[in-house]
Amino acid sequence: MLTIGLTACGEKEEAVQKVRVAEVTRSIFYAPEYVAIEKGFFKEEGLDIELTTTWGGDKTMTTLLSNGADVALVGSETSIYVHAQGSDDPVINFAQLTQTDGTFLVSREKVENFEWDQLKGSTFLGQRKGGMPQMVGEFVLKNHGIDPQNDLNLIQNIDFANVANAFASGTGDYVQLFEPTASIFEQEGKGHIVASFGTESGHVPYTTFMAKDSYMKENKETVEKFTKALYKAQQWVEEHSAADIAKVIEPYFEDTEVDLIETVVDRYKSQGSFATDPILDEEEWNNLQAIMDEAGELPQSIDHKTLVNTSIAEKASK
Fold it and tell me: Which domain of life is it from (predicted)?
């Protein structure tokens, strides 16, 4: 009996902590997130990730605020919008996943020697007003001397999930798309990638993991473990080839050929889209607000330290 009792005590395992994560969309752009799950990095930290795709920034933030998720993966601008509404439980950015815009400019017709001026007079199918893709899109256009409101026919009233379908159905001369949709359209002859918004806009906290301040205070150790697992995945992605990464994340894109996944991952790696650590620094935060301000969407300037917690990411990265 004594032997049995000792064995039972010795085999006692730590309780696994479930973390409900709501991601704004399903995208190869978020490869390190899927690597962290598939390579067991979250599991190593005693975390069980319940991943849900909520399709759109507004829906993702609503899910987080209504306690439908513990952590959200979404653009940092959403935390600023919530703060501006006077929330008594602000949403805090604690781990950055991507550090550039993840969209590409796709032309309906094949364009030789593309120049941004060619957009003038065209119909441009952009992303939802107030979201990071649309704001970065306008920021880049303005940097190339194009007034989005006057130099082209800008369409931005189509729901995020339906933008690609609208273009495929014949709407617009140009469209701003995420991968793998952009490459799939090119492969199927529906469009042609002519430019990257990510290379044009510089470093921004494009997608970050965030949680309500109350959750972070009540679950400090869980958030630390989550960030540590993410950092392991970021380093793994940095050190491995696009082919290796594609094989790992393939289960998340069942309708996409692994060769195409590899092409997209390589494109994102080559332009430095995947953050190599989870630290969201002040320069990136200020660049984000400059883009929002240029788009007329910045409700108020927010100090980096108000909505960003870097201490957890800094600890995880050591």
Answer: Bacteria
